[in-house]
Amino acid sequence: MTASEAYAELVRRSKELGVLNSCAGVLNWDHQTYMPRNGGALRGEQMAFLASLSHQKFTDPKVGELLGTVEASDLVRNPESDAGANVRELRRGYDRATKIPQALVEELARVTTQAQQVWEQAKKKNDYPSFRPLLEQVVKLKREEANAVGFKEHPYNALIEEYEPGTTVAELKTLFAGLTAELAPLVRKIVASPKQPDKSVLEREFPVDRQKVFAEAAAVAIGFDFHSGRLDTTAHPFCSGFGPGDCRITTRYNPRFFNEAFFGVLHETGHAMYEQNLPTDHFGTPLGVACSFGIHESQSRLWENQVGRGRPFWDHFYPRLQQTFPSALTDVSKEAFYFAINDVRPSLIRVEADEATYNLHIALRFELELALLSGDLTTGDLPGAWAERFEALLGLKVPDDARGCLQDIHWSFGGIGYFPTYTLGNLYAAQLMDAVRREFGDGIEEDFRRGDFTRLKGWLNQHVHRHGQRYRAGELCQRATGAPLSPKPFLSYLNEKFSALYGVC
Amino acid sequence: MTASEAYAELVRRSKELGVLNSCAGVLNWDHQTYMPRNGGALRGEQMAFLASLSHQKFTDPKVGELLGTVEASDLVRNPESDAGANVRELRRGYDRATKIPQALVEELARVTTQAQQVWEQAKKKNDYPSFRPLLEQVVKLKREEANAVGFKEHPYNALIEEYEPGTTVAELKTLFAGLTAELAPLVRKIVASPKQPDKSVLEREFPVDRQKVFAEAAAVAIGFDFHSGRLDTTAHPFCSGFGPGDCRITTRYNPRFFNEAFFGVLHETGHAMYEQNLPTDHFGTPLGVACSFGIHESQSRLWENQVGRGRPFWDHFYPRLQQTFPSALTDVSKEAFYFAINDVRPSLIRVEADEATYNLHIALRFELELALLSGDLTTGDLPGAWAERFEALLGLKVPDDARGCLQDIHWSFGGIGYFPTYTLGNLYAAQLMDAVRREFGDGIEEDFRRGDFTRLKGWLNQHVHRHGQRYRAGELCQRATGAPLSPKPFLSYLNEKFSALYGVC
User: What count of other Cβ atoms lies within 10 Å of the Cβ of residue B401?
Assistant: First the structure.
């Protein structure tokens, strides 16, 4: 078999896996949206069947042989050619999938399924001790996973590679140190400011049916293609791109709080526009898959915050919003509304945090999961460490574990290494937007004031979406923005925005 | 490998196929209900992948070996034991799937996909000549399929076996002869009666949201489990049982015609209650699958017509219906409504036909597809033969092919042999209901007047649903009703009901 033939066969297998995995995507979406209550057991069997088939096909030794044949050829000389990038990423996935022993895969599946159930109850009952033994097992198994995969310097490097290939603990430590050094004082100044928004205007009556119409119109305006996607309602909002022509997003509506559904829809629309603009021809291969979790999050945060919490966006949308919710907003000025949606206030819950405090929540989790994994922190000491560090970073006392170390689902499903991608997303979003502003100048905000988001969307299509996994996140950032990732654009953005709003400097 | 081991392995494989095929069920449901327009291409790839995998697993020669091992043992001595029935039906499926050459399977898939598209346009444009060459190919390929499968007496026997195993052309001819001999004169008498219903009361304003609430409540009352199913809206109503705990039905609402959604929901609920009450433990094996298309249709027709178009049902529901649609029905008496929903009138379209004329539509199709398959009728002569026989059977001139031989989708997808199962369903429904009445006497109608359908549902669970494919349809009928299938109970039911309503005898 020639290298070209081997590569063609790899692509064929990869595309077949893409189709197979997209079936699981549809089943999972249905599970979250419309499946009747008693359908859960069958759905579990369906998902297990598809996952096992997918794993079996992907770890077939033949895949290893094909990779070896292509790697020994000139086809991959340029790591950013089609073959170069596809083989690089398939090799990463194949090695990871084949290095982890089947027994460990099964044990992880078993323990994390149980851990998620126990976590849900423990959170409800504020009962960390009931969750602790499960977390202990998860940490132990993730350590074994890291050892099986192999790593340099810190086992965490093996775990973050699953979400953000190419990123290291050392880089993240530098990023977070730079961030917290500036964020903590900024937040303190904001909190101390006498000028404060009236957030209560967002907690008036916002009828759900009108929220839906308004949010869908905004999603269309920024570029979501409803002929290639849908918006539904679920308890936990998500975006699921099945493949070309079909990407589904969800949100949840709170009739007494405007932000929840609306900014959720902008966020998921950001994710969805990435999925809807991946190169169709490469569907099923790495070139048709989003670059990394951090870059994916940059797309959601860019539309949610950089655009959706910006003045020009509301210059266009606020009159429409007032028309849609006259009884709630007739007496609220655009400026008062804009200030309210940009309320900065240290709070206990990550998913409710504002732009300025959000990354402090992540810094805390990054620190603690590093320590858990290395063994410097025991699961028994976690609640105390959480409370201590939370107060140091955010200035608040943690009243209970439910609003402390039990608040997030991630550790229960084994997602150690996932949290930093949220912060990476925020930083990439700011750096991308900074590059857009440099390219288009004030014109881009004039676009927004007219309700025209096509140039921004086109730029993101061009510099981010169409590349799939051709470049690793760092390289993509360098090419799109002319510089490696830095916290500076994000910090400048925050300082500029909130200094003006709160009258601090 | 012992016979017991072989049987266990067969069951394991069959259950795995059940799970695999249920994934395709979910994808197909989503396709009909919520899939965005541009998702069609990917959905086609997903369905093709799953279908091909299913075919490959089912026709694996190992399955043939396992079947052979079990068949040579005592395990199948009793053909109605678990192993006896499962192996009998798996063998039938395996032989059928392996006897048809792969090239023919692919050609049939190709031609019928194209034929359905062409048919849809041809029907819209009343253009039979554009469809004729495709139908010609379908008939030719179905003839080849019959030859590959093998048959006695008539190739049609090989085709009907796919839908109604054990039934033959000879039996069907006798049934249809008996039916038409009595139906045609009954319909003539009804048409000539001076007493006629005012059907226009059903064509008033019936707001869709209220129709939905009313239909869902009726579905619950007769026994649909909404925790194990859903009701959604589609262009073409259907029922899809994915497996234990998840069966979905759909309907379509016409704001100016009550019957369409309501009787559609009763019909699909009848199908769904069969699916929801198949034995869960046998899911994926023949014992967990409905007996035949005819028996399935008996369940939908029983609830739609025998129950839902009966007086006792409306003794309970009509006051509720008037409350739900006061402006449409306040001035309509229960008797006038009951007469209206039992309007008998020869009409051109099968799916709109009443209980008395419906089977004449099927008799026509059975006659014509027999002749097409045997070569006694050419596709060129089909429209003329249709018009001639339609007038003879139903007394109406066919104005065009769109309302003639182009009205049904079945031939375009290769479903020659399918139509008779509709009539079998009507006959089984009447015979089952006759047995129920013999068992419970007038008590069963007293149940209905109270809105209590549990005894009827329980009887069907006991005598039909729980058996899966343990018995062939004929044997199931014999056991449930004490007699082989006969058109008599159906004809008695019709004569009694409509003689009284129309004052004819």
Answer: 21
Q: Give me the residue spans of the domains in chain B.
A: 3-155, 204-341+421-478
Q: Is B475 on the interface with A (CB under 8 A)?
A: no
With bands split at pLDDT 50, 70 and 90, how would you rate the model's confidence at A137?
A: very high
Determine, for residues A41 and B244 on separate chains, whether the beta-carbon distance falls below 8 Å: yes
A217 lies within 8 A of chain B by CB:
no
Nearest to B274 by CA among B423, B164, B161, B429: B429
- Inform me whether the C-beta atom of residue B241 falls under 8 Å from chain A C-beta atoms: no
Provide mean pLDDT across the span B73-86: 97
Residue type, A168: T
- Beta strands A246-251 and A239-243 are antiparallel
Q: Which helix (H) or strand (E) holds A241?
A: strand A239-243
DSSP classification of residue B307: I
Q: CA-based Rg of chain A, rounded to a whole angstrom?
A: 23
pLDDT in tens, A55-103: 999 999 999 999 999 999 999 999 999 999 999 999 999 999 999 998 9
DSSP-derived 3-state class of residue B110: helix
Active site residue B268: yes
For the domain covering B204-341+421-478, report its CATH number. Answer: 1.10.1370.30
Q: Predicted ipTM?
A: 0.94
Say whether B246 and A35 touch across the interface (CB within 8 A): yes
Q: How far is A43 from chain B (nearest CA, A)?
A: 9
Q: Do A23 and B22 touch (CB under 8 A)?
A: no
Radius of gyration of chain B (CA): 23
pLDDT band at B505 (very low <50, low <70, confident <90, very high): confident
Classify B349 as helix, strand or coil. coil
Of B274, B258, B373, B367, residue with least CA distance to B321: B258
Backbone angles phi, psi at A456, to 5 degrees: -65, -45
